[in-house]
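[agent] plan:
  1. take the single chain provided in the ticket
  2. run structure prediction with default settings
  3. attach structure tokens to the ticket
  4. add a short note for the reviewer (M.T.)
[agent] executing step 1
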Amino acid sequence: MAKKARGAASKQPPALSPVLKAMLDESRGRMKKKDAEGRTYLGKEMEGRQIGIPFRQLSLMYLFDSTVLGLGKIYGLAGPSQSQKSSLGFEILSWLFNAGGGARLVECEGQKYSPKLIRSLMGDYADLLVMDRCDSTDLAQNFITDSIKVLRTLGKRKTLFGLMLDSLSGVEPESATTKVEKEGSSAPRAYPETALTYTRYFKWLASAVSDLPLIFLFINHLKEVPSSMPGLPPTKTTPGGKAQRFHSATYLFVDRISRAKTRETRVVEGQKVVMPQEIRPLKLKCDKNSLGIEGRSITVDFWWYRDTFNIQHSFFDWEDATAELLLEQQETRGVVDPGPEGRYAKLQDICDVSCTGGLYTSKALGLARVEGHELGAALAKHPLQETLIDFFGIPRHNHWDGTPLPEADEIGEAPEPVQTEADPEEKAPNPDSVDLGS
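[agent] step 2 finished; step 3 output follows
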């Protein structure tokens, strides 16, 4: 027999005791004097404080376990080389532009990006992307801090914005590069300077962005370290210390799951058109999710347009990812109906998706032998999507309406870059083994 939920025994809602009410009033009065109302609130108000840009596709809702891309949050993307993680970052920035916002790229990899690809993903919005080229973590953090100060003052916490750092481990602090310039490869490195620098900075950053309609997105490399024990798989690590994971609301791993394939045609609005493209299948895994279920993964095709005369057709096929998700989940996924009979409901009973020869059929949607992206696009406009959101237990959060987010704690000034002096005789610790998140 299922246990009753806490608080469900009484039909009357629990009342706030005089002691708790006095405590609440006292704290709210203190915050009002500091012109910082909204920092103290009751638990019944917490759902309303999760605000974001709505997702249209069920595949993204399932991956993030949310109906919105939450604002005031830090997001991490990590993957091996050539896994399209930066491309995914530009895709996310384009969502903010489409919602009426802006974006800034703090680039730390020596301009290793393709202008053609950025324009292909972002279209005309690429012309409005603010871009900074950095040669040290000090300069990168200064650009990020300047952006946050402007959004807080001139933007009055009402400007939708995205900050993207590519990549977290692309450059080192000025103190470290100075040593290398002077002493070359023999320069000692007794401290994990980059990790220490970002440890202090992430602590400040997490609070600084929490009351802004902003996302801070950083790109990092995912490396495999061989296990010291025979027979055990390698360990995946992300350079730059553990603070990046500790302070991230969501951390996604991106990886290519097979070799690229080519395709010449695609159905667009019911018409078959010639679009010679290279398709790169990717796996996205939510390795950490502070706001929902972690460990969820989806597969998505990244279409790279190969015609040099038309560069605005590279995209992530989230619609097709939705079709693949439903097909994969419906065989085993089920929930117990909370009704009096307690029936076991299968996903297949709800959406009834089948695939033959790469073409999908769904009786619930009234579709027969269509491509995956057509099924996903139809679902986004169909009431069945709301049923599936409930089936997967995806939390519904508020859509941002242009008003400031509830204020966070006192922000303070950004920390100064860490200055470290290396002892030539001291053994350098591994920055990935230093717990810098607490």
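[agent] step 4 note for reviewer: The radius of gyration is 24 Å.
[agent] ticket updated
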